[in-house]
Amino acid sequence: MIHTPLVRELRARLGAENVLSAPSELAVYDCDAYTIERRRPDVVVLPQSTQQVAEVVKLAKRHDVPVVPRGAGTSLSGGCVPLGGGVVVVLARMNRIVEIDLRNRMAVVEAGVPNLRLTQHLAGTGYHFAPDPASQAASTIGGNVATNAGGPHTLKYGVTVNHVFGIEAVLGDGWIVRLAPVENPRELDLIGLIVGSEGTLGIVTKIWVRLTRDPQDYRTMRAVFNTVDDATRTVTRVIAAGIIPAAVELMDQGIMAAIEETMHFGLPLDAGAMLVIELDGPAVGLDAQQERVIEFCRDCGARELLHAADSRQRERLWQCRKSSGAALGRLSPSFLCQDGVVPRTRLPEILRRIAEIGRKHQLRIVNLAHAGDGNVHPNVLFDDRDPDQVTRALAAGRELLEACIQCGGSITAEHGIGIEKVDLMERLFSE
Amino acid sequence: MTTDALPLTQTNAPADAAEVAEVVRGAFRDKMPVYPIGGGTALDYGGRPTAPGVGLSLEKLSRVIDYPADDMTITVDAGLTIAELAEHLRTHRQRLPVDIPHADRATVGGVVATAPSGPRRYAYGTMRDYVIGVRVVDGTGMEFSGGGRVVRNVAGYNICRLMVGSLGPIGVITQVTLMVRPMPEASALVVCEVGDFDAAERILAALVHTQTLPAAVELLAGPAQQQGAVLGPMLESSAARVIVGFEGSELEVDWMVGQLRKEWSEAGISTPITIEPADAAAAWDWLGGLPADVQINVRPGATVAMIEQVLRLDSRCSIQAHAGNGVIRVGWSPSQTPPVALSPSETPPTTLPWRELRGAAAEAGGNVVLLSHADDRQLTARDVWGPPGDAATVVRAIKDRFDPQGILNPGRLDYGS
Questions:
Q1: Closest CA–CA distance from residue A281 to any residue of chain B (Å)
Q2: Domain ranges, residue A238
Q3: Chain B partners of A375 at a C-beta cutoff of 8 Å?
Q4: Could you give the CA distance from residue B99 to residue B101 in angstroms, rounded to a whole number?
């Protein structure tokens, strides 16, 4: 066991049951959902209060040991991997919903509260927490803050930073700062700076989040197209008409085939792309909006159109999108879920480039996109037992992100930089 | 434009970002303060400048660089006026949904640096929610950029957020990329008057659960609002007005107006008036451009109690509150006759009682910012911001990194050093 004096001090402060240092216990924390690179921490702590987090940081600083915060460990870019060893601070036990305050349309939560738990807790109030990343059943709100997480609804409702207006955090010297839940123009927008800083500026322990009114009603549609260009043109037409859908999810031919191979929804295998479009808002306007969207789909060559008549059908339309992760899991021993973003109108171009990259590296790459804001998730399928495939998968991932930069985009829209993309930052920001 | 608020020895108007950088590099060498100037509409906002220096006008940087309307983004030079921006966006039925006063003169860069907001912030947020990319010249004359031209981007620190409302001390903004939104088809406002502030709070609390989706929730009170310009005078027995604004498709707006009237009628709120779509634009403009001398920020639920305290301190104050957001804008009108004798004091104060306001706001967990006042030029020479919070040391450290000589807008933002 390394750093024994540190471990001893940590145990004295936090209680032995909140400090893990046996190799078997530490192994769980050697990676997150990005499994390609691993590093075991020297010690893991599970603090239960902001004060305890501050004590841990101070001790680590005194022992000159790095600190890496961790929520539920769902990062897809290695955001929780302690590359330099040291202390991993797991915030999962700081999981209290401190306050629900509907009059002020806000909730106060500790960092370890899982995203979905807050929304479940709010059921029946008419309000919800808008950011809903795919990981929301597990991922913590603290983790959402660290990565500025998104989800399918960001075009209309924004990302995490648009819903956070107060933060308590422990800075690198163990100092606890509280950035007020009331706007103060004399302060720079430090909250905006900390959200998305991936734990590099401090450990967020408590968060004041804005709550969003539940939509009165929904209209959900699924449209199948011969080409990605047709699907993208549809999205452009919808937005040009002043309609901001709650969600526009695009699936390309590859992912439709992958879903069909494992789930058998009856998706056409020769189609180029599929869109799941959801509208929400006051019920009175939705039918007219839906009619227009259907008209745009037809104009752009949709060959198959379904719309949900009730909430059960809505669930079923969403099912084909939501089951993609499971489908990929069954199809391939491993897959690298990439995260790139381009101006929305350049989606066809980036998908063509991604296909070329897949051919070049002889890897199957299938794509999902939050098409409304140009966020594409290429999934690179590979076998992690084959070192050559791992090398090719990493190379392909890197090349497709470089292609995103060349298309005027960026290397991450919602997963974060983590350890995966650090070396691409220079490419993105140097001109 | 008047630049009286700034102690300028001369003013440069560089032609592009490279020339801006050159001016700042020179100032950095000479340790000469630099005061960036946009449309000059908010030069008296913030602390008083502490030393003479050169003005840096961005007026020649006024191009639209890229407007891919289908992507709902626009990249512009910092010196483009808000009115010109709106004109471009209008060609594609788009807009920046932030209320910005003096749009004919205010510039995009200036608006990013000062972050004004208005009634629509209830539904659409503020500038910080729309700036997705910036190009900036720091205090050493080095150009840097943050963000990009995509609406969703989490690569690296959110430099854009750091620039919004920063009042210039991080760097001179030369270029901005904004996310924009579709222009709504229709809008309308529903207005009611209340006899006392308890009733006002009941209405505001009930609005949290309305079936409608308000774009704005405003409260007006005090003598200037009593006279009521665009909305007409209030009843003598009324203490305040609550205004709920709606935007959306014609169907939606029509339904929301009817629904709110129904909800209010069921709650016993009598005779609300509706400002129909044809007149709504004028009402929005008026609400978005009302001047103020002091801004109080509290939690939304503390708004009404705070307003009562303000009027108790000086009943000649006029109030516009973005009540759904806890933003209270106070106009001090010493010449006004108070409509209701809320103040027990015999001799009204001769100056705005800002110290007392600050104490009351602090007790409510909020803060007070002194803006400006035509009748009281010394107002902003006082303590514009109040006591520093937890963030001051961090802000200072950031400022020192971007502007090591402290030459950018010295004095405007005070760091409690």
A1: 8
A2: 217-319
A3: 152
A4: 7
B344 to chain A nearest CA, in Å? 30
First vs last Cα of chain A: how many Å apart? Answer: 46
| Res B376: pLDDT | 54
Highest mean pLDDT among A371-375, B176-180, B379-383: B176-180
Which of the listed residues A34, A56, A90 is the one where a domain comes to its end?
A90
In CATH, what number does B186-381 get?
Answer: 3.40.462.10
- pLDDT in the model for residue A221: 96
Identify the pLDDT of residue A131. 96
Name the architecture of domain B59-182: 2-Layer Sandwich (3.30)
pLDDT digits (tens, 9 = 90+) for A125-180: 999 999 999 899 999 999 999 999 998 999 999 999 999 999 999 999 999 999 97
> Helix or strand or coil: residue B5?
coil
Last residue of a domain, one of A150, A180, A213: A213
A223 and A204 in a single domain? The answer is no
- Answer yes or no: do B394 and A196 touch at CB < 8 A: no
Which one, of B56, B253, B209, lies nearest residue B137 by Cα? B56
* pTM of the full structure: 0.95
pLDDT tens-place string over residues A4-23: 899 999 999 999 999 999 99
Confidence tier at B233 by pLDDT (50, 70, 90): confident
**Domain boundaries along the sequence of chain B:** 59-182, 186-381
A411 contact residues in B (CB cutoff 8 A): 155
Distance CA A173, CA A166 (A): 21
Confidence of residue B349 (pLDDT cuts 50, 70, 90): low
Of the candidates B208, B213, B388, which has its C-beta nearest A282's C-beta? B213
CA distance A207 to chain B (A): 16
- Helix H, strand E, coil C: the string for chain A is CCCHHHHHHHHHHHCHHHEECCHHHHHHHCCCCCCCCCCCCCEEECCCCHHHHHHHHHHHHHCCCCEEEECCCCCCCCCCCCCCCCEEEECCCCCCEEEEEHHHCEEEEECCCEHHHHHHHCCCCCEECCCCCCCCCCCEHHHHHHHCCCCCCHHHHCCHHHHEEEEEEECCCCCEEEECCCCCCCCCCHHHHHCCCCCCCCEEEEEEEECEECCCEEEEEEEEECCHHHHHHHHHHHHHCCCCCCEEEEEEHHHHHHHHHHHCCCCCCCCCEEEEEEEEECHHHHHHHHHHHHHHHHHCCCCEEEECCCHHHHHHHHHHHHCHHHHHHHHCCEEEECCEECCHHHHHHHHHHHHHHHHHHCCEEEEEEEHHHCEEEEEEEECCCCHHHHHHHHHHHHHHHHHHHHCCCECCCCCCCCCCCHHHHHHHHCC
Q: Which of A367, A116, A337, A322 is nearest to A222 (CA)?
A: A322
Which residue shows structure tokens 């510039």?
B107
> Do B256 and A416 make contact, defined as CB atoms within 8 angstroms?
no
Using DSSP's 3-state secondary structure scheme, residue B148 falls into coil
Give me the total of CB pairs closer than 8 Å, taking one residue from chain A and one from chain B: 201
**Does B212 touch chain A if contact means CB atoms closer than 8 Å?**
yes
Query: What is the average pLDDT across A109-123?
Result: 97
Q: How confident is the model at residue B383 (pLDDT cuts 50, 70, 90)?
A: confident
Question: Alpha-carbon distance A320 to A263, whole Å?
Answer: 8
Q: How confident is residue A357, by pLDDT bands cut at 50, 70 and 90?
A: very high
Answer yes or no: do A189 and B161 touch at CB < 8 A: yes
| ipTM for the assembly | 0.94
Question: Running DSSP on this structure, what letter comes out for residue B44?
Answer: T
Report whether pLDDT(B342) > 50: no
DSSP-derived letter for residue B234 is P
- Calculate the average pLDDT of chain B: 90
Is A204 within a domain? yes
